[in-house]
Design brief:
With 250 residues, the protein is of the alpha/beta class. The protein contains 8 helices and 7 strands, in the order βαβαβαβαβαβαααβ. The protein starts with 8 loop residues before the first strand and ends in a 6-residue tail after the last strand.
Length: 250
């Protein structure tokens, strides 16, 4: 029963596809009602139907977490519908260009940092204020092994390293409010978001040489770590990074 999320209310950003969708479904299977947010409502509606089919409540909310004026509106809608927010999963991220560190433009840099780091922090702050009032909660950031070791996406790696540190800061400063904050760092995972990486033979060859398990991950394989960190089974864990990467960080 320690792993049960029965009665909990969760918010998953970037919840319309890929890892975000898999996490939202995983939380629902564990017993949580789930709000999913992203920029495209039709895609969210499909995920919401999958959640409802599991017997849980679902709330699709169109929101761009990289826009400060939309963050509070998102939090207000979830709180109004569910009454509380027990779990926040910071999954929304972007990487609009594949450029080297010597070529990347300021515009591309700002686009990545605005969503992957700034938006993540200020959404967490807004949700933490709700969690503080209700007596606690759990924040789980989806970073990347690219935030631990540099990869072929330099700005993305920097933003994901920043997301890890931001989450550790949350863990340290919000523990007195009974808020736990942890990170899940996926390795290369077969999603549309990362298609360029896993569909490029040269990149895949290098990635597999570094991965003891010899394969890339599936989105559903990321959900278990999130469910664990969101549950009472992880009640004494905060500020930690769990790599779900087939051993690539070894």
């Amino acid at each position: 029963m320690d792993f049960s999320l029965e009665g909990k209310k969760a918010l998953v950003t970037g919840g319309s596809r890929g890892i975000g969708r898999a996490i939202a479904i995983g939380l629902a299977k564990a017993g949580a009602d789930v709000a999913v947010a992203s920029r495209k409502l039709p895609d969210l509606e499909k995920v919401a139907e999958e959640i409802r089919a599991l017997g849980r409540k679902a709330l699709p909310v169109q929101a761009h977490v990289g826009r400060m004026d939309e963050i509070q509106n998102l939090v207000n809608k979830v709180k109004e519908e569910f009454g509380r927010i027990d779990i926040l999963v910071n999954n929304a991220a972007t990487n609009p260009v594949v450029e080297s560190a010597i070529d990347i433009s300021e515009r591309a840099w700002d686009s990545v940092m605005n969503l992957n780091l700034k938006g993540l922090f200020f959404l967490s702050q807004a949700v933490a204020r709700v969690m503080k009032e209700q007596g606690g909660g759990r924040i789980i950031t989806i970073s990347s092994v690219g935030g631990i070791h540099p990869d072929v996406l330099p700005a993305y790696s920097v933003s994901k390293a920043g997301a890890i540190m931001a989450t550790k800061v949350m863990a340290q400063q919000w523990a007195p409010f009974n808020i736990r904050a942890n990170v899940v760092a996926p390795g290369l995972t077969k999603t549309e978001f990362s298609r360029f990486l896993w569909s490029t033979p040269e990149i895949m060859q290098v990635a597999m040489m570094k991965t003891p398990m010899g394969r890339i991950g599936e989105p559903e394989e990321m959900a278990g770590a999130v469910v664990f960190l969101a549950s009472d089974a992880a009640s004494y864990i905060t500020g930690q990074v769990i790599c779900v990467d087939g051993g690539s960080t070894v």
